[in-house]
Design brief:
It is a single chain. The chain has seven helices and four strands, in the order αβββαααααβα. By secondary structure, the protein is mostly helical. Strands 1-2 form a two-stranded antiparallel ribbon. Strands 3-4 form a two-stranded antiparallel ribbon. Helix 2 packs antiparallel against helix 3, helix 2 runs parallel beside helix 4 and helix 3 runs antiparallel to helix 4. The C terminus is likely disordered.
Length: about 240
C-alpha cells in the first residue's frame, strides 16, 4: 500500500513524515528532508494567506488548509507567550487567596492544552501536505490529503474559538472551517473520489471562505510567514498502530 493510499484510512490525529513539497505560490517553498524511520522531520507550511486569488484543486486546498492550521497554532502560541510575559512582569499578588491561585493554575493548564491540541492539528495537516509528493498524483489520493488537512484545520479552529472566548468572529471562523472540512470530505467521498467537479468547486469555495473567516478572526494575515511545523516521527510499528 502506497503512502497516498494510507491517507484513505488515516484519521486526523496522526503525524507522518514529509517529502519535498512545492507550494502553489511563488517564493514559498517547503524544504523537507528524506524521511527515515524514527526520525523527526520538520516541515515548512505555505505562508498563512498567500496574496492573490484563492487556490483551487485538491493539492492547493491541502496546502491552504495546512496553512490555516499552522496559523492558528502560532497565533495561540504567541498569545500564550504574551500572556505569560504579562504575568511575570505583574508579579504575584501577596494578598491573593489560595483559591484564586488554584484557579490561576487551572486556567494556565487549560491554555496549555488548547495550544497543544492546535499544534497536534497543525502537525497532522502538514503530514497531509507531505504525502502529496510521495506517489503519482491521482484525484482520489489528492482529495484524501485535502480531506485530512481540512479536518485538522477544523480541529485547530475549534481551539482558536475556545481561546478567544467564542466571540462572534472566532465562532464564525470555526464554523467556516467545519464547513470546509465537510465539503472536502464530500469531494473525497466514495461516490466522488475527487473527480466530481461540482463537489470540488464547492470545496474550493468553502476553503476560500474558511481562509477569509480566519483572517477576520485575526488568526491569519495575508503574506505572513508561518514557521516550520514538525510532523513527529514514523516507523513501521507506528504506522501499523495508526492504521496507516
Amino acid at each position: 500500500m502506497s503512502e497516498r493510499d494510507r491517507q484513505e484510512h488515516m484519521g486526523t490525529s496522526h503525524p507522518g513524515v514529509p517529502q519535498p513539497v512545492e507550494t502553489p505560490h511563488p517564493g514559498v517553498t517547503q524544504p523537507v528532508e528524506t524521511p527515515h524511520p524514527g526520525v523527526t522531520q520538520p516541515v515548512e507550511t505555505p505562508q498563512a494567506t498567500p496574496e492573490g486569488p484563492p487556490p483551487t484543486g485538491h493539492a492547493a486546498r491541502t496546502r491552504s488548509a495546512a496553512s490555516r492550521a499552522a496559523a492558528v497554532w502560532h497565533y495561540l502560541e504567541q498569545r500564550s507567550s504574551d500572556g505569560k510575559h504579562e504575568g511575570e512582569t505583574a508579579g504575584d499578588d501577596k494578598h491573593e487567596g489560595e483559591a484564586a491561585g488554584d484557579d490561576k493554575h487551572k486556567g494556565e493548564a487549560v491554555k496549555k492544552e488548547i495550544v497543544w491540541k492546535a499544534a497536534h492539528a497543525a502537525r497532522v495537516s502538514a503530514q497531509a501536505v507531505a504525502v502529496l509528493s510521495t506517489d503519482a498524483s491521482t484525484p482520489a489520493a489528492d482529495s484524501r490529503c485535502a480531506r485530512n488537512a481540512s479536518a485538522s484545520a477544523a480541529q485547530a479552529a475549534q481551539m482558536g474559538r475556545l481561546h478567544d472566548g467564542a466571540d462572534e468572529l472566532s465562532t464564525a471562523a470555526c464554523q467556516a472551517a467545519v464547513e470546509a472540512s465537510r465539503a472536502a470530505a464530500d469531494a473525497a467521498g466514495t461516490g466522488a473520489l475527487g473527480e466530481d467537479e461540482t463537489l470540488n468547486a464547492r470545496s474550493d469555495e468553502a476553503e476560500a471562505a474558511a481562509v477569509a473567516a480566519a483572517e477576520r478572526a485575526g488568526w491569519m494575515r495575508p503574506g505572513r510567514h508561518v514557521p516550520p511545523v514538525p510532523t513527529g516521527m514514523r516507523s513501521p510499528e507506528l504506522l501499523s498502530m495508526m492504521h496507516l
